[in-house]
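SAMPLE LOG
Freezer: B-3
Tube label: C17
Construct: single chain, 385 aa
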Amino acid sequence: MKVTAEAARRFLVARHLLAPARSLDGGPDAVLEVFRRLGSVQFDPLAVAGRNHDLVLHARVADYDPGWCDRLYERREIFEAYNKGLSLVPTSEFAWFRGTLSRNAPRTLAKNGDVAGRVLERIRADGPLSALDFERERGTATDWFGMATNAVRAVLEAYAVTGVLGLARRDANRRYYDLLERLLPADVLARKVPLEEQLRHKLLSRYRAHGLLGVSGGGDVFGGLGPAKPDARWPGYSGRNALREELVERGDLVSVEVAGIRGKRLVVSEDVKLLEAPPDPPPSVAFVPPCTYGSSSSHRPSAVGAGTCCRSFSGTASSAGSSRGSTGPRVVSRCSMSGGRTRSRHAALTGSSTRCVTRCARTSASRVPTGSRGRRTSVPRSGCF
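STRUCTURE (predicted):
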């Protein structure tokens, strides 16, 4: 399948539910629809302008209220799982996210066996607990910097990765764990899926979430899916490349060649019709958070000229002053950190597009989720931040 770069740009904006922005109505049901369409949304509890998943949803759901997502979490309609990074995933997908290739979690439990036993026994008796509900214990666990860390925290996280415990709730950034069988419905827990099928499903979910993803991994885009080729450290696992080939052979993924763009890309089969005839959306602006599918690595939509990038907002706007000399989804602002300074780069916008950016920036500023201290983060009226 061959498409023009213009068609690819319009497809990506539509596929990411930004054609136009904030077009989904329906409160919590609209939020759940975003999860169904994207498969998962990366979670980050740090709130500057807002938590990452709230910003993702704010760009797509009309009059978004963070309480809607919290309500779905409390009703167990979504749960936390690792899909590239810590993500919120529909509970109906649990069977495909309960397994892992990670050897670190079982190793942590084995090396801290006494602590692991006491932690599990206490939670079984007392219900949801956080690491602060236990006495700090030393063990073999270390943090990212190689420094000794609380063995209880390491054990709790390992139990969550291996599917013994799950997150019952969060109090700010404090995590409370409970037995998984007390958190999810019995029919959800009863469904068993072979590990390789889980990995195949998760690989497909990365392509579904991105829209037009390549075959090589940049950054952590294929993180958690093991090596690309068979490796003796994972006996019996054929590797990501083999799983991808199976998805293509089954017709779940379709190869796409984008004019002027090097490298093969793949699209999920149900999106082929949208890619063949992508809509020409009205002008709109969406503020896109850093931790969102399609904004990381060389696979970001900007690789085909669409406007999403780290700490950016993007929209469908006429770009008469662009060096590309074409119209369609464009980068209208980009802020990057360099040497402790923030640099802003602006694309040229004229006429109604400029008025649209200014108007949308003002309305978005009034609706942006509150920050970590309950304050709304202001957005300059120029439409740049």
